[in-house]
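Q: What residues go here?
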């Protein structure tokens, strides 16, 4: 998986983290999605959230995604903050893509984790 360029990770707690970056207009996943206005595909947002959660929390996922909501498109040059929270009691992690320059949530969801 191709990750965003120049991202900064801040682990705010043992069960919480933030990943900050500016979405570069040269990112491979933007090509052809869409010609008039490139958007970061939802599957990439989900893939990045899972990748970073696995890396930062040392977990494995259960390939069960009970909730995902896309509320605002992410476009090139948006300043993004991915917010991750691990909940071991509920056996899941939540993610939120926050667009800092618009003060708006772009997407959010839950992903089940293995025991």
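A:
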């Amino acid at each position: 998986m191709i990750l965003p360029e120049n991202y900064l990770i801040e682990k705010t707690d043992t069960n919480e983290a933030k990943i900050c970056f500016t979405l570069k207009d040269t990112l491979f996943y933007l090509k052809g999605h869409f010609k008039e206005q490139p958007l970061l595909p939802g599957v990439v947002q989900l893939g990045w959230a899972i990748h970073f959660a696995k890396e930062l929390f040392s977990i494995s996922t259960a390939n069960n995604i009970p909730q995902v909501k896309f509320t605002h498109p992410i476009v090139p040059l948006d300043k993004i903050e991915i917010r991750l929270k691990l909940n071991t009691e509920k056996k899941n992690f939540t993610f939120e893509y926050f667009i800092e320059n618009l003060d708006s949530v772009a997407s959010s969801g839950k992903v089940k984790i293995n025991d």
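A: Context that may help when evaluating the design: The CA atoms of residues 91 and 115 lie 7 Å apart. DSSP finds one helix and six strands in the chain.
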